[in-house]
């Protein structure tokens, strides 16, 4: 298990409890979406994984090591964190320098560093922007630079905080493909997200938080079924799930592939139905 959190509790200095007894584990290669309303504790939980926040009580274990006392620089060898606002982490004078900073700081060998930087730039569609100043780029481009800088560090865990915010359709599609590729490579991806379409298309598991507690944890299909019920928790359903409900489908469908399969199945059933008198 790459990540284990046990009874994690966190309070802000004003006494507000942001996380209250949170416990779960994540296997290597899993794609896990952290969802919930604003103030549920999602980003606070994510920041614990890189040591920006520290527990009031409870433990966090990453790649077999407890994080107690580990510095942020040490945790960065295992967990790559892409902030919601890329300006919180971009600092270099060019895209190439920004993406190369992490592997250089981790003292990777020159050949490996070069390979990782080139791969990260290619995978994020930034090869034509290597000489550009990050702060002269659009928000979507800056978010891709931040993502590339984390990919180049080759961490086994990648954490994305609201990765689709400010991204156009092309960038969201690129990001979704990257999430799928990272999981296929055995790397673990956790994403804090309000984008339920992105969640349903590219994640296997959903952990839903409310008021600092986990209220649901399981496969994305189970979460959709629960959220679709009138008594379920108030989450925005994916567009295709809402469309399926309008078509009278009882079983939630959230992906394009699943939606087309269901349409094909319904058309087949209609064709097979006996003609009326």
Automatic annotation (TrEMBL):
UniProt name for this protein: ABC transporter ATP-binding protein
PANTHER family on file: ENERGY-COUPLING FACTOR TRANSPORTER ATP-BINDING PROTEIN ECFA1 (PTHR43553:SF24), HEAVY METAL TRANSPORTER (PTHR43553)
InterPro entries: AAA+_ATPase (IPR003593), ABC_transporter-like_ATP-bd (IPR003439), ABC_transporter-like_CS (IPR017871), ABC_transpr_CbiO/EcfA_su (IPR015856), ECF_ABC_transporter_ATP-bd (IPR050095), P-loop_NTPase (IPR027417)
SMART domains per UniProt: AAA
One GO molecular-function entry: ATP binding
Pfam families according to UniProt: ABC_tran (PF00005)
Gene3D superfamilies recorded: P-loop containing nucleotide triphosphate hydrolases
Keywords carried by this UniProt record: ATP-binding, Nucleotide-binding, Transport
Residue ranges occupied by any ABC transporter domain in the UniProt entry: 3-236
Family the entry assigns: Belongs to the ABC transporter superfamily.
